[in-house]
Amino acid sequence: DQATDRAGMGFHNDSCEYLLQEARLLLGEDARCVWTNDDKLDIFTGRTATVIPGTTLAIRHAAGLLSLNRLSMPSMSSQLVTALVRVQPVAMVKSVDVIDTCSSLEILATVASPRPLVSYSWTCRNDVELDGYLSTVAGPTVRLSAGTPEMKTIDKSYVIAFSATDFLGSTTSQIVVKVYK
Asked: What domain of life (predicted)?
């Protein structure tokens, strides 16, 4: 809310560790801190970030972050707020379209996200038993053994949906595949 001296950070210095205590732990490896103007610091978290909106970040005393006129005491902390626009993770799902009664089944989801993922969701829209099993799958891959006992009905097209959520609560669009048994 007040113009700062940017702790002396120039345009080429984007090290969060220079400015913030516990930067690597909270913001993840390879996080970047970029001043967009004298009163706004944009933080680009790394893949292993644990910080969430509302977290108070401690400013390193040695960084000496002051008001632009340098008359203030060094800043001690600042509260993190979420970005105005969140980047939505993007998912893709790979699966066969048809299996026979003896086959196994593997469905693989891949997700591109600038932030760590915290949950995966698998559902079956048209079969209660398969849906019950899928609700227990906690990762990006569904594996059903030979004969796919979770898919009890034959001559049926199972409608399976996937989504993933990152640690800031952004969710992928739901991806739907159909597998005929």
From this structure: Eukaryota
The token duo for 180 is 């005929």
HSE-up of 66 (CA within 13 Å, CB side)?
9
At residue 96, what is the residue type?
V
Q: Hey, what amino acid is at 155?
A: D
The answer to whether 65 and 59 have CB atoms below 8 angstroms apart is yes
- The DSSP symbol for 97 reads S
Is the separation of the CB atoms in 18 and 6 below 8 Å?
A: no
Across 78-95, average pLDDT: 78
The CA-atom distances, in angstroms, between 103 and each of 123, 142, 145, 152, 168 are 20, 14, 8, 13, 38
| CB contact set of 47 (below 8 Å; sequence gap of 6+) | 28, 29, 30, 116
On whether the CB atoms of residues 112 and 90 are closer than 8 A, the answer is yes
Q: Which CATH architecture has domain 90-180?
A: Sandwich (2.60)
The rounded percent of the chain whose pLDDT value lies above 90 is 45
**Which residues in the chain are classed under CATH 2.60.40.10?**
90-180
Q: Which residue has the higher pLDDT, 169 or 154?
A: 154
Cβ(171)–Cβ(87) under 8 Å? no
